[in-house]
Amino acid sequence: MKFATILNPIGIIFFALLLSCSPKTTPAPAVIPEAELVISGGDRDEHGCIATAGYTWSKVREECIRTFEVGAVLTNAQDPAASTACHVVAGKDESKREIFLPEKPESIVLTGTKSQWSDAKKEYVLTEVKPGNFILQNVQGIIIYKSE
Question: Average pLDDT for residues 17-37, to the nearest whole number?
């Protein structure tokens, strides 16, 4: 019994000394190189649109927009599992539509009638099959994007 009484305080002191001698390391905070640091709002384009906030310039609306908020979404007709989409934005009047294609760096303005529009080069034709339901065809007449 005496041995157990002596051992407990000695064990406690030994354990405390052991803990105090172990190095205390705190992980260093992650340092992001300034070249990789992007501040939202620090990337305004020539029109004042903030790309990091999802805004892009619309030629037909003449304002910064988020295509996923104001445009119709068309999925890839050739590969329905594709994660990319085409966005169609209506102009201020019925004669213009603007398409934002994932494979093109800039949007393309289409002009036409109430239900069919094409670009100046006739590379794309957008048809509104029924209200809010579109198909986009390439110059060969192949449907490349469509509403779901």
Answer: 57
Question: What is the arithmetic mean of pLDDT over 100-112?
Answer: 95
User: What's the token pair of residue 117?
Assistant: 């529009």
Whole-structure pTM value? 0.69
Rounded distance between C-alpha atoms, residue 109 and residue 69, angstroms: 18
Question: Do the beta carbons of residue 66 and residue 54 sit within 8 Å?
Answer: yes
Closest CA to 108 of 117, 118, 116, 98: 98
Contact 6, 13 (CB under 8 A): no
Query: pLDDT > 70: what percent of the chain?
Result: 72
